[in-house]
Design goal:
heterodimer; A: globular; B: about 70 residues; 2 helices; flat
Chain lengths: ~550, ~70
């Protein structure tokens, strides 16, 4: 039993259970020590297929390690530590255990050697992240979490159908590279892309993440989409469709972020944008491109966390999230502003930051493969990243006009977390060799050549010029921008309401004209089956589904 | 305030100019011929961003709503 805790993901999940009952200093100690212990486990675990198991006649490998899975286990545990440090003063006691369950199951996916284990942890991840959303405890967060859960349970069904068909057809559960050439594999790919927030099902991310608490979004940004990047790296390297999907995400993220007024929704759109770069790299599929995608996932988790820690500090200290209400905060929050600025430089891939040494590998791979159109679009997109996240976020929050707000800096643990992650963002940009050594393939690439640095500086700084020249066109307005989710939030919801009403009317009319054998039979059924024949609300059904999934997980590990 | 703003702009333009001057002294190892054009990245970055801002404007005209649009 104790050997189960050698698995970094299960160790974090066990810590989540502890955190749920502990209070005070011991809680803080576990919150910080558990991710560090998991990080050490992830560093030291041997390579190969470590655990074997039988389930319903299938061979499972719940714990398998290679370079790629170790890279993701390392960054996930590191992020769990930074997030826990940042969230120590979070008053909602559900959030941290939920975040550890969520992080632990993301690590579980990264260390899964078979598709069944992937599915199980995939579903636990959906539950953990929903609990993180719930712990914001606002009506808006609750409504958003139901939309979130609906999308992810639908994605889970796609995955279940795909995995079941794949296992039947191939006779193997093992999780290795596939081609999207059978319906089963296409379903698996579609499920992965739902979690990657690929267009057209990207709206769930900017819709729901910004409703989380000031610390909740830091966790949410790290795991779901990057786990999706991991499974795409392992499952579908070189699937050309991913180039198109990735580029669509890149430009979708930029355009929507440019129109956005909520500071954390700007950053949410930019998650879609950055994941788009990784997915494009996976679609290119060369060793250089896959290394680039993996490295970019690693660096992105850190600088996006830094940006969201900075934004979360602003949210906690001011209670405001709209750019139109903010501005001039550098006066009283210089450290938060500086850390936000470092995150902004890193996401923009400025030389000497982590984003530069990772994203440039993807662009380089496009050039090496002579994909001229892809290379040009990636260049335009890199300029656009600086525009929508690199300047827009720090400018409207910390500079712009003087909003008159003079909030103090956040508590010490939040400052410490920001300093730690900011140091990593710069450190990885300067000392990139250790990161390159962790990548799945051997690296033959030097990011810092004079030509490359000058080209990147020109591209970015002249993007900055465009921002300030066209600032009048970027003025913030009190608006949202409709997305694909409008389809199910407005017309489909309306149709469902009308349909439900019509159904109700029909049933009532039928019942009014009682006496038919049909109705009597119906009453018999209801009497015979009691509560199960009643119509339940979708909320109750959601809880039922959650309970079933948990039961599935328990039977899976209890045999 | 006005003077300060002018100074900031002057500094920014000086940095921009510096990147253009630096290009002269750098050995190019481009993937594509287009990179050999002088100041290619500067012009491309500016135009790409201008294009993206215009595209966002156009999309915003059609898809922007008041931010209480979804509130029941």
């Amino acid at each position: 039993m104790s050997s189960l805790l050698l698995h970094p993901g299960l160790a974090l999940i066990a810590a989540a259970a502890l955190l749920a009952v502990l209070r005070g200093r011991s809680r803080a100690a576990v919150a910080l020590a558990a991710p560090l212990a998991a990080l050490a486990l992830a560093w030291r675990m041997g390579e190969g297929l470590l655990w074997h198991a039988q389930f319903l006649g299938m061979d499972l490998v719940p714990f398998a390690v290679d370079r790629l899975s170790r890279l993701f286990a390392l960054i996930f545990t590191l992020m769990a530590f930074a997030g826990a440090l940042y969230a120590l003063n979070q008053a909602r006691r559900v959030e941290l255990p939920a975040a550890f369950l969520y992080a632990g199951s993301a690590i579980g996916v990264a260390l899964a050697g078979d598709l069944v284990t992937v599915f199980v942890f995939w579903e636990v991840m959906a539950i953990g992240s929903t609990l993180v959303l719930w712990s914001a405890a606002t009506p808006a967060a609750y409504r958003a979490s139901l939309r979130y859960l609906m999308v992810h349970l639908a994605g889970g069904m796609l995955l279940f159908a795909g995995v079941a068909a794949h296992v039947l057809q191939s006779g193997s559960t093992s999780f290795t590279a596939m081609r999207p050439d059978t319906l089963a594999n296409v379903l698996i790919l579609a499920a992965f892309l739902v979690n990657a927030a690929a267009w057209p099902v990207s709206a769930w991310l900017p819709d729901t993440y910004p409703e989380a608490s000031w610390s909740g979004m830091v966790f949410l940004s790290a795991f779901t989409t990057k786990t999706a990047v991991y499974v795409l790296l392992r499952g579908f390297p070189g699937a050309e469709i991913l180039i198109v999907v990735g580029l669509a995400m890149v430009f979708y993220g930029i355009v929507y972020a440019l129109l956005e007024n909520d500071m954390r929704r700007i950053l949410a759109y930019s998650i879609v944008n950055q994941v788009g770069f990784m997915i494009t790299g996976i679609g290119i599929g060369t060793e250089m491109a896959l290394n680039g995608a993996a490295a970019h996932a690693f660096t992105h988790i850190l600088y996006k966390a830094l940006l969201l820690m900075s934004a979360g500090s602003v949210l906690l200290m001011t209670g405001r999230r709209k750019c139109t209400d903010l501005g001039g905060l550098w006066r009283s929050m210089p450290l938060t502003a500086a850390c936000g600025f470092i995150g902004a430089l890193a996401i923009s891939s400025f030389p000497l930051t982590s984003g530069f040494v990772s994203k440039s590998m993807i662009t380089q791979a496009a050039g090496d493969e002579h994909l001229f159109a892809v290379w040009m679009l990636l260049g335009a997109a890199s300029a656009g990243v600086f525009l929508h996240a690199g300047i827009k976020f720090p400018w409207f929050v910390f500079f712009q006009k003087d909003s008159g707000l003079r909030p103090p800096e956040p508590p010490w643990n939040m400052r410490l977390a920001m300093i730690l992650v900011a140091a990593l963002c710069i450190g990885l940009g300067v000392f990139y060799e250790p990161l390159y050594r962790l990548l799945p393939h051997a690296v033959d690439y030097v990011p810092y050549t004079a030509f490359h640095v000058v080209a990147q500086l020109q591209l970015l700084l002249f993007s900055g010029l465009a921002f300030f020249v066209m600032l009048g066109w970027l003025r913030r307005t009190l608006t949202v921008t409709l997305d694909v989710d409008w389809l199910w939030r407005v017309p489909l919801a309306r149709a469902a309401r009308i349909g439900a009403r019509a159904l109700g009317d029909t049933v009532r009319a039928a019942e009014a004209g009682a006496g038919t054998a049909w109705l009597r039979a119906g009453q018999q059924v209801r009497r015979a089956h009691g509560p199960f024949a009643r119509t339940w609300s979708s909320g109750a059904m959601g809880i039922g589904v959650v309970a079933m999934l948990l039961a599935l997980l328990l039977t899976y590990y209890a045999y | 305030m006005r003077v300060e703003l002018l100074r900031l702009w002057a500094g920014f333009v000086a940095v921009l100019a510096l990147t253009l001057v630096a290009e002269v002294f750098v050995d190019a190892h481009p993937h594509f011929e287009i990179e050999r054009l002088y100041a290619f990245n500067a012009v491309y970055g500016f135009l790409a961003c201008a294009g993206l801002i215009l595209a966002a404007r156009a999309i915003g005209l059609v898809l922007k709503r008041k931010d209480d649009y979804y509130d029941e």
